[in-house]
């Protein structure tokens, strides 16, 4: 057993900078590289892509990143754990193997975890009495079952550890939890058991701190003027020990900062009950964590307590929930806000004149530049220009498209100073609804396998 391992977290979401993982690999010591590509809406997008092309449905950015880093990763023996598989882990696996062969890398072991995707099993589960009611409002899944786009259980770190134990240097997963990308290596390296709740809770806290990438090293930080060199901001590195104690740091010479405040700011991110942060492997007590600076850009976290997990997995489902269209125009010159408000009234009036009306709940109008982001908190000013964002939603796609045809005409038939219409006519796009639910763990079976280039 090693006395310490370094896990770099190089991706906070699908679309994060490719420089995060590229620089983590090249600029300092690393044992593992963790990469998080998934969010609730991402799964539905991937499912739609797979519906159009059976070979799609995974994070193509992951393969593009490996195209730049794979030779160095292989040479240094860095192990990579990513949930880039989305709804098609096998497709991602084959793309990585093809890339390795193209680069002449032989003997690269790539593992895949699946079993989290339960979309095809929903009718069977419903028939067997698994209601999967909406956790927010208690509605039965039957209300939207015929509109489902994706359904994925949040599986835990032990599946990742199993894949590493099978010899994989690169682990590709679907919807594992974000902290599992850190917890998996720790379980594998340190031999933790499913009953090591305190240690598993520590890995949950570590993964939660690192899961948004540079958000714990100075990104999105309130005191942003204190942050040095955003251009070369360092992504987090977790230095973990067998007892669950860990240090949050970054590679030497990189930008950004790691302080108690940057770490605690991220620790509080998306927090529900801090005494009982639920995950598939344990329940973590975030209030038990002792967070202290032990050196420049080095924050140690210790003393985390945990308890047994629930007997259910959280399941993230998405469904088709109507259509929307949003357009925007810039309104400039004197009395910009007054003119922008008139523009919105004109759009609604002309639509009504043609027999196309929307309820207040179906309409949206924002005046960016007039304090809309902090409405009711900051006093609105009278700026020389604003951006009017106007939109609608409806189950009627044709009605939504009819709205889109009345935005651009304001340039010539509205008040003066209207511009910024280069985006053209807004068109109806799908609204993806989110449905959180619970499912007994006994109903989800994960599988791992490893292939070699």
Q: Which key terms come to mind for this protein?
A:
alpha+beta, 10-stranded mixed β-sheet, 6-stranded antiparallel β-sheet
Secondary structure layout:
Elements: E1 5-11, H1 19-27, E2 32-35, H2 40-52, H3 60-76, E3 79-82, H4 89-102, E4 109-114, H5 122-127, E5 148-153, H6 157-165, E6 170-172, H7 180-190, H8 197-210, E7 237-240, E8 246-249, H9 260-267, E9 277-278, E10 283-285, E11 290-295, E12 298-302, E13 305-307, E14 312-332, H10 336-353, E15 363-368, E16 385-394, H11 397-404, H12 410-413, E17 418-419, E18 429-440, E19 447-452
Parallel strand pairs: 1-2, 2-3, 3-6, 4-6
Antiparallel strand pairs: 1-7, 4-19, 5-14, 7-8, 8-12, 9-10, 10-13, 11-12, 14-16, 14-17, 14-18, 15-16
Helix pairs in contact: 1-3, 3-4, 6-7, 7-8, 8-9
């Amino acid at each position: 057993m090693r006395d310490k391992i370094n896990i770099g977290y190089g991706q906070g979401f699908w679309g994060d900078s490719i420089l995060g993982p590229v620089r983590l690999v090249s600029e300092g010591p690393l044992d593992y590289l963790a990469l998080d590509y998934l969010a609730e809406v991402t799964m539905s997008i991937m499912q739609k892509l797979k519906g159009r092309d059976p070979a799609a449905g995974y994070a193509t950015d992951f393969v593009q990143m490996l195209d730049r880093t794979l030779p160095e990763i292989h040479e240094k023996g860095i192990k990579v754990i990513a949930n880039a598989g989305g709804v098609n882990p096998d497709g991602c696996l084959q793309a990585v193997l093809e890339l390795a062969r193209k680069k002449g890398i032989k003997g690269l072991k790539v593992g895949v975890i699946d079993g989290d995707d339960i979309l095809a099993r929903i009718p069977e589960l419903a028939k067997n009495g698994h209601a999967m009611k909406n956790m927010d409002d208690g509605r039965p899944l039957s209300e939207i079952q015929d509109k489902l786009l994706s359904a994925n259980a949040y599986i835990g770190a032990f599946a990742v550890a199993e894949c590493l134990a099978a010899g994989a240097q690169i682990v590709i997963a679907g919807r594992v939890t974000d902290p599992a990308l850190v917890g998996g290596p720790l379980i594998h390296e340190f031999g933790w058991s499913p009953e090591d709740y305190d240690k598993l809770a520590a890995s949950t806290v570590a993964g939660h701190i690192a899961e948004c990438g540079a958000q714990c090293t100075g990104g999105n930080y309130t005191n942003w003027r204190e942050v040095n060199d955003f251009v070369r901001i360092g992504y987090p590195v977790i230095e973990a020990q067998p007892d669950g104690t860990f240090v949050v740091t970054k590679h030497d010479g990189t930008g950004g900062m790691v302080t108690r405040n940057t770490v605690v700011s991220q620790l509080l991110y998306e927090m529900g009950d801090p005494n009982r942060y639920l995950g598939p492997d344990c329940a973590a007590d975030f209030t038990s964590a002792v967070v202290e600076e032990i050196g420049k850009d080095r924050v140690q976290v210790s003393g985390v307590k945990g308890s047994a997990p629930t007997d259910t997995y959280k399941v993230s489902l998405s469904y088709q929930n109507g259509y929307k269209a949003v357009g925007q125009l810039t309104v400039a010159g004197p009395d910009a806000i007054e003119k922008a408000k008139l523009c919105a009234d004109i759009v609604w009036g002309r639509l009504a004149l043609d027999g196309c009306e929307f309820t207040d709940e179906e309409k949206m109008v924002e005046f960016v530049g007039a304090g809309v982001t902090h409405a009711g908190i900051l006093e609105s000013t009278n700026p020389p220009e604003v951006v009017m964002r106007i939109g609608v939603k409806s189950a009627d796609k044709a009605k939504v498209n009819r709205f889109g045809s009345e935005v651009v005409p304001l340039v010539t038939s509205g008040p003066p100073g209207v511009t910024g219409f280069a985006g053209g006519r807004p068109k109806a796009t799908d609204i993806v609804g989110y449905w959180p639910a619970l499912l007994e763990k006994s109903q989800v079976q994960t599988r791992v396998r490893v292939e070699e280039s």
